[in-house]
Input
Amino acid sequence: MSSTSARLLTLLSLLGARPRWAGAELSDRLGISTRTLRRDVEDLRGLGYPISVLKGPNGGYRLGTGGRLPPLLLDDEQAVAVAVALQTTPTSVSGIDDAVARALTSLKQVMPARLRAEADALHLTTIRNYWEFPAPPIPSATLRTVGHAVRNRHLLRFDQLTPDGRRPDPGDPDFAPPVRAEAHHLVVWAGRWYLVAYVPGEEAWRVYRVERIHPHAPTGVGFEPRPLPAPDVTSYVMATYDRGDTPARWQCTGTVVMDLPADVVARWAPGGSVVEFVDTTRSRLTLGAWSWAGIAGLLATFDADISDVRPAELRDACRTIADRYARASR
Output
């Protein structure tokens, strides 16, 4: 690599490390004159990097964001990290498999031989965790539309799809008018995408499953961000029982009424379960496992009284486990 090319890469790395640099400081770091620095900056601009010149006594240079994606500069650890991340990309978004494969191939093509060997050595096979229940893949166009509304603080207008992906017609009994919501946050939890939004017409916060959102055309109508009804967005989503979840498919599925509030149960319920509000101190939990004893064991982790246990097989499993532990405690 020529000294000029190496210097340009170093300059680009420095510009990406801080929001702004004084010209004299950059010149000192690179060991060049201010005239050579200006020429190098122009060369980087010609390659597509949007570098701004800041005027005034506190002026200097700043690397901004451009209208097209310029070449990226990654150090060794970053390049390997991106290669690993591309191989472990979740399948929760449809239509990007080919793009992911092409991105990984492109990255390996420009890696030095030693890094390419390291990336190849990290060829991964992802095995699904039985307790993760990702939603059906989301169309990438839907994700872009929702993400655009979140990023730009625009009202989002959308229809809600049924759990099986159907869009009800106006004459259907389950038809509902389009939702008009302030799109605040996107959250990914256990392979499921959620939209946290405020619905002005209901004067309430809601959590929606993104794969059940059928967006209308962008509204372009802005809104002022509101404070969340929780310390942070993670806590809010995890403690919201009415977030559109549906029971996962298990060999056994049971339901009980638990003497705990719905927000407490929702926070700790395993993936693929459903929590329903009963009253301020009780909730209904529907969950599954590979056996009835497995469900009974999960229920015990909540350390709370239960009632209305269904079906009969789950009641039998609870009795069997109670007898087993009673004998063990003697």
Summary: Residues 76-121 form one domain.
